[in-house]
Structures are given as C-alpha cells and as structure tokens.
Amino acid sequence: MDRVKTSANEPCSSGTIQTKGNEDTIERHKKPHKRKATSVGGESEEVGETESSEITIPKSKKQKVESVSSQLFVMGENNVGQLGFGLTIERLMRPTLLELSDYISSIAAGGMHSVCLTESGEVITFGCNDEGALGRSGDEEMSPDEVEIPEKVIQISAGDSHSAALTEYGHVYLWGNFRNGNGPMGLVADGVKEMRPVRILSNIQISKISSGADHLACLSRDGIVYTCGCGEQGQLGRLPAVPDPAAVPLRIPIEDIWTSNYCTFLKAEETGQIFAFGLNNCCQLGYENELVAYTPKQVLSFNGKTRKEIAGGQHHTLILDSDGLVYSMGRKDYGRLGLEDNAGDKSSPTLITSLENEKCSNISCGDAVSFAVTEEGSLYAWGMGCNCQLGHGNEDDCHIPRLVEGNFANFWKVLKVSSGGQHTLVLATPRES
C-alpha cells in the first residue's frame, strides 16, 4: 500500500506519514527500466535498482589530490538526481561511492537535493532545483556542480526546498524557497524564490546554522538565535511568526542549536538546559499536553545528562548524550524510534537499549528514518524502508537499529550521516588495513 503524506498538525496515528498540507502522495517506485552505469572497473553494466556499493560516476574536470581523506557515499531514491548520478540510476539500496572532484568535509541532505562542502570550502549541490535549492542554474542540475559563493564556506544546511551556507567570516548565504500550507511562500521577499545565494543577517556574525524543512535557525557569536521561514508549526519560536529573520525572545545566551522538520532546539550556554519550540503533536519536543509551542519552553525531560546532538524527522526526535548513548521520542510508526516492536509513542527521551554498548558520535533523521554512527565508524540504520535509504539492501521497515553491512562496512569508516526526504548521504574514510 502507498504511504500518504497528510497534515503535519494532525494528532499521531498509525498508517500515514504526516507532513504539511498540499503535498503529493508518495508512491512506491515501479520496477525501473534498466540504465547504463559505469562500475569501478570501467565496464558498463545494466543498472536499474542496484545493491552495489562499487558504482561511481566519472570525475569532473579537477584532478583529485591523492591522499587519504573523506569521500561521499549515497543511497536511496534518485528520481530527481539527488544521488548525483543524473538519471542513470533509479535507486541505490546500499551505500555507493560518488566520486567528486574534491574531498568532502561535510554533507547535508535536503528533501530532494543534496549539498556537500569540500575541504577547500566550496559548496557542491545536485538534485531537484524547481525551487532553487541548488543555488545555480543550467542544464546540469542533476550532476554535482559548484555554487558561487564569494567566501570560504565552513558549514552547510539543507531543508525541503532551500539550502544555506555559513562562511569563515560569520556570514550566512541562503537560496531556494520556503513553503507553507498554501505552497511556496518566498525566501527573503514575499513569493520570490532565490535561484542564487543571497546574504541575510548582514550586520550579525553567525557561528552556526541549522535547517528545518522550511525554516532556518542561526546562532550568533553573541549567543542570540535568529530564525526565518515558515512559522505555521511554531518552529520560529516567536510571535508574530513573520518569515523575515528575527531574534527568538530568550534572555539567556545560547551555545548550540538544532532543528528537525518542524521543531527547533536550543542549548543554554551556562546551564546546558534544553529549550524547544515547534510542532509537538507526537510529543517530539519532549513534553505532553501541548500540540504546538510558539515560544521557547524548557524541556524538563532532557535534564540529567549533557546533550551533545539532537536530530529529528517529521514526528520523531533522536538525542545523543555526552556518553555516546542515543535516545528517541515521538512517533513510533515504521520503527523510527529504534525500540521494541511493541513499543508505543514516547513523550520523553527513551534509551535505545540495542545501542547502549556502542559509543555513538553522530546521529541523523530523515522523515521516518533514523541513523547513528559509532566512534568505531560503524553505521546503524532503522525506520521506514520503502525508499531504500537505510542501506540494508531491501525495502523492509526496520524496528531496531541494524548495522549497515557488506563491503562498505568492511573497508570504510563512517564519519557522518545525513538523511533527506527519500535519500541518505554518508561521509566515510578508508579503514586502516
């Protein structure tokens, strides 16, 4: 049966994935036509759906420097080129090497596009560009290419239809479009999408950026949080929820920020307390009896341990603490919480016991999928399997974290993972022999 997106604000219930209104139904792919792809050995092979972790695309014009460094692997759906192979391949069931012209230092998977940051500070994008999320135009939208930004970039983020970059000078560049329940709403001007990067918050130095589905949070070097974009689900943390960049009214300095699709999380500088706002229809903010939080509210259920990282999807949240333990909360459907099959929705952080013997260093969420990277460089994935973005080689839902195995796991050490709407990016470096 097809799984349908409905309203993000609906109470949680089994059977559908809920997001904002006016979304198209996501259908399972029919059996794809076979297409040509180039393998590592240089021979052509017929490829439609593939489980291979050995398929690459040709290098572009630049010559890669021969040194041991991180490289990009991709998996999941490729219906709009979000895996970087053009339309050569329909989908990839396992992590597959995508050779680029430079080594990659950071990754961000958007709704249907991908953003990569090279070690030299350049931004590369590929995938869907109908709302300008690639930051460039031309006929090669589905193939990796560079975004023109006048400064060295040190951080990137991606949402459903927008992307952002933070430079070494603390400047933020934003491109694409935000959407609300009525459709495209514009980026920095009402109803106008931006096909090229535009600078925002020009008089403020920023230290971190984080993208939700249709909003952006920026942390200034002074500990103030600024948000922009869609505020229908409270994710801007302020009223009135005007889309223009503005400060969140919180009178304590903030040291870190994270976003999920429709939520924002803040970490206080002095106390380490966590504040959250946004959509809470499945208790994904960590407290009960409030469907939407329009202003920051302390999450008391987060007290007790130092929170290192927070990630979230449509209706669930993962938390990584300083001991390397991973917790989940929110909606249980399709196994996205990583708990037992009979576990219900969770309104507070719940330890994922199957990972308690693994010290984790990174977490990520797609709409209904979850990932954890261990300090040893292993990748665990769980949740909805129909888009093949878990990397297990099948379309089965996975209710408990499962190791991504095969040649990829044997020869590559995972550093970071980023999951989008229907695809996943993995940053890895060769394992020592």
Automatic annotation (TrEMBL):
UniProt-annotated stretches for the region Disordered: 1-61
Keyword Ligase: no
Renumbered ranges of RCC repeats: 70-120, 121-169, 170-222, 223-270, 272-323, 324-376, 377-430
An example Gene Ontology CC term for this record: cytoplasm
Biased amino acid composition, Basic residues: 28-37
Top-rank lineage group of the source organism: Eukaryota
Assigned keywords, A-Z: Guanine-nucleotide releasing factor, Repeat
Pfam family, one: WD40_RLD
Protein name according to UniProt: RCC1-like domain-containing protein
